[in-house]
Specification:
By secondary structure, the protein is of the alpha+beta class. 35% of the residues lie in helices and 21% in strands. It contains 21 helices and 30 strands. The strands form 5 sheets. A 13-stranded mixed β-sheet has the order 5-1-2-3-4-21-20-19-18-16-17-15-14, sandwiched between helices.
Length: 800
């Protein structure tokens, strides 16, 4: 019996238990009352296809009778997907349609042997050979072993692997992998090895498999080979095949167009344009070519508008007779010339609207250009001194945000504030607008010489006085004037931040270029060195939280990150830490992705915070007792209808599951953080977990705190913090902590109306009923929290 002995991650489970659990997972779904294949549409727009059944628990046999089945299990052959019933929008039963092509590959499979119940650490996997075989080297209860696997079944979506009866290794093991994870050249060789090349039906079966896999180019190539190899085909059949080739070419062209749109959405406009220039035109549908021509025209018009804007700016500026004024405008003009592009062109809209107005003075037109550039076209003004003042204020703000002082009362900060207050129109509204369009205030270090877009950085952990190393990988065509979704990823035991970068962004080629999904979708990837070198489990400590959060905040000051679309992720031990950090700080994340994590210590105690963090968790069916250990938490999330997706791969163990990458990016593309929830209740159990969105608590009671270092810890309670915006433009906060600070924005309250704030049922006294926005508060918040996208405009503090 193969048993999981994961040296990279101690499980603290016995062999007998792991074996029984593995068998239960393998046998629990036989005879289950699944519906016929259905198309399940989620409320976020995702679509799952497969047999489905309602259940009450992730470890329940679907055949079990129950009164309340609030979880839906979807089986797509490769994996089991668990989602809350309330997150489903609709379910459509699928008609029979065309049969799914399935290739059965003959192998000498073990029929009498020990059933694999748990899969240990995998050391190496060889590539498939042309017979569909590969060797897995992994840890077992018998020590390291080599297991030969053979492909026995291939469908468009998944491929089944079983153990080959060889080398005295007699195991029964049904593993599923995504068919698209097999290199297409090798898949073709495997299929061709097991068919009769002179059998037309078998050759066409390969074409249909490629079509169902949406490998249209491969299907077209195979069909072309069939037409050539079967020269004696009747003319009408050849005509049908040729028509099918045309349709395949058209489908392939539509796929290229979809890829162009994906790259355009990711901000990779030069790459998109290059694909448009090389777009195939032969036998492509007219509507597709029309869409291509439309995109080409759009890019050309944008380019022409940019050139026109710069030319007209120079022409209008030359009309200003005051040479000193022209000299002062030179810096702004040089910046606009250097940085005007597809992501900033809209800032010149007000200038372009009036640049041909013969009645408007040149000074007013230039004011529209400069102020629009700084604050956006809808914030443009005609007064040139005001526009120049805005330029000066922005420079002071950039200097303020780059200041490393730890306290807002330090002299350099006070001096900068005093200088800003002397400027015309220095208001909270202007400050917020300038912050939102400001480039990251800290300069970048030299990038890696080996990998394009890779940066190696270090930041001080202010709490523990320990420097934190972290890596950042930028996508191609990174532009600091564009906000990028971002992945913060935590490594497993025995691996490194560099491996996490490789998993999300793809390994670098010899030329130092990555072609992975993070690059394709335009994501920044941050990988902090969050754990000690020999660490084998998450400690749930302040230092670990600090390593992640300080690295993120430093990155926010250096890179253009969309703070509403930051995802925290991790593999194995890193998945544990990411899970804990996601629930402890739910206000920071657009979502959490855990690959084979274990819920330990505080994770179970933070279940109530899970409703605020979309989650996607991935497991292997044969990963020891992890599934059972996590079941209580997974059931809690799923039965309560939170935005949670749980995936279990069939016959798989403790892996990285790159098969799921495309679905993960699809899911992330649909998630966005709510920065200003109007009503929330969260729990905290540690000193460093007391801030939630716009409420920051202080001095929690000792009896409610836990110390992860002395676990197991008797939990006598927790610090519950409830905050809500009431219907009369007021704020109510109740917390077990001794005091709290309430941070306010125009999204929460109307500063032009009276506002009453109560904390711990006590009204906070103010000189008037109005709360005044304060640019100083805003700037200090943006400097310390590093979120220029959502600065707080004012704060109210309760007495300690």
């Amino acid at each position: 019996m193969v048993h999981h002995l994961d040296t990279a991650r101690p499980r603290r489970i016995g062999r007998k238990w792991a074996t029984s659990i593995g068998l239960a997972a393998a046998l629990g779904f036989l005879g289950a009352p699944f519906a016929e294949a259905a198309r399940t549409v989620m409320k976020d727009g995702r679509v799952f296809t497969g047999r489905q059944a309602p259940i009450t628990s992730v470890i329940e046999n679907p055949a079990t009778a129950s009164a309340a089945k609030t979880i839906v299990l979807i089986d797509d052959g490769l994996r089991r997907i668990y989602v809350p019933q309330v997150q489903i929008q609709e379910v459509n039963m699928l008609d029979a349609g065309d049969p799914v092509e399935t290739f059965e590959i003959p192998q000498q499979i073990t029929e009498n042997g020990s059933r694999v119940a748990a899969v240990g650490s995998i050391f190496n996997i060889t590539p498939f050979d042309e017979f569909g075989r590969r060797v897995i080297s992994m840890e077992t209860n018998l020590g390291p072993q080599r297991v030969i696997q053979g492909i026995t079944e291939v469908t468009s979506d998944w491929t089944k692997l079983e153990c080959v009866d060889a080398e005295n290794m007699h195991f029964i093991w049904d593993m599923r992998i995504a068919t698209n994870s097999i290199p297409r050249e090798m898949l073709g060789r495997i299929l061709e090895k097991h068919i009769d090349p002179k059998n037309l039906d078998q050759r066409l079966k390969i074409v249909r498999l490629y079509m169902q896999s949406e490998r249209f180019k491969d299907a077209e190539s195979e069909l072309a080979a069939i037409i050539k190899d079967f020269a004696s085909l009747p003319a009408n059949q050849k005509q049908v095949f040729e028509q099918t080739r045309v349709r395949l070419r058209q489908a392939g062209a539509r796929r290229i167009l979809e890829e162009i749109e994906t790259r355009k959405k990711a901000g990779q406009n030069r790459f998109s344009y290059s694909l448009l220039e090389e777009f195939p035109a032969e036998n492509v549908a007219g509507e597709t070519l029309q869409a291509v021509r439309g995109l080409v025209k759009e890019y050309q018009q944008i380019d022409e508008r940019g050139k026109t804007a710069l030319r007209r700016f120079d022409e209008v500026m030359s009309q200003i007779k005051d040479s000193a004024l022209r000299a002062r405008l030179a810096e702004a003009r040089d910046e606009i010339k250097a940085e005007l592009g597809i992501n900033t062109l809209d800032r010149m809209a007000a200038f372009m609207q009036f640049e041909a107005d013969a009645e408007m003075p040149a000074e007013e037109k230039i004011a529209l250009a400069v102020s629009g550039w700084l604050g956006g076209s809808d914030f443009a003004v005609r007064n040139l001194p005001t526009a120049l003042s805005m330029f000066d204020v922005r420079g002071l703000i950039r200097t303020y945000l780059a200041e490393t002082s730890r306290r807002n009362g330090d002299a350099p900060l006070l001096e900068l504030l005093a200088s800003m207050r002397k400027q015309e129109g220095f208001t909270p509204e202007l400050t917020a607008r300038l912050l939102s369009l400001l480039k990251p205030p800290l300069p970048l270090p030299e990038p890696s010489k080996k990998v394009v877009g890779l940066y190696e950085l270090q930041v001080d952990d202010l709490a523990n006085q320990v420097p934190i190393d972290y890596l950042v990988q930028l996508p191609r065509e990174y532009d600091p004037h564009r906000r990028y979704p971002t992945i913060v990823t935590l490594h497993a035991a025995g691996t490194s931040p560099a491996k996490q970068i490789d998993w999300w962004a793809g390994p670098a080629t010899d030329e130092g270029i990555r072609f992975g999904q993070a690059d394709r979708h335009g994501y920044i990837v941050i990988a902090p060195a969050w754990a000690a070198e020999q660490q084998t489990s998450c400690n749930y400590s302040e230092q670990e939280h600090g390593a992640v959060l300080y690295a993120l905040r430093d990155a926010l000051r250096r890179f253009s990150i969309d703070t509403d679309r930051i995802f925290i992720t991790g593999h194995s031990m890193g998945g544990d830490a990411a899970w804990d950090i996601a629930l402890a700080h739910p206000d920071l994340w657009a979502g959490y992705i855990g690959m084979t994590p274990i819920a330990d210590k505080t994770i179970s105690l933070y279940q109530d915070n899970a409703k605020y963090v979309p989650m996607y968790l991935v497991f292997g069916e044969m990963d020891g007792a992890v599934w059972v250990k996590d079941a209580t938490n997974l059931d809690h999330y799923l039965t309560r209808g939170t935005n949670t997706t749980v995936v279990q791969f069939k016959g798989r163990g403790h892996e990285h599951f790159s098969d799921e990458l495309l679905r993960l990016f699809d899911w992330m593309g649909r998630q966005k953080r709510d920065f200003t929830p109007k009503n929330f209740t969260c729990r905290s159990l540690r000193l460093w977990d007391g801030s939630f969105w716009w409420v920051e608590t202080h001095d929690p009671p000792e009896r409610a705190l836990v110390d992860p270092d002395t676990w197991p810890h008797k939990v006598s309670g927790a610090i519950h913090t409830t905050a809500k915006v009431n219907f009369v433009n007021g704020i109510d906060v109740v917390t077990a902590a001794a005091s709290a600070t309430v941070w306010l924005t125009p999204e929460l309250i109307d500063f032009k109306r009276p506002c009453e704030v109560t904390i711990k049922n006590k009204r906070i006294k103010k000189p008037s009923a109005y709360i005044e926005p304060d640019s100083a508060v805003m700037l200090e918040d943006a400097r310390t929290r590093s979120d220029r996208q959502h600065p707080f405009w004012a704060k109210v503090e309760s007495a300690k």
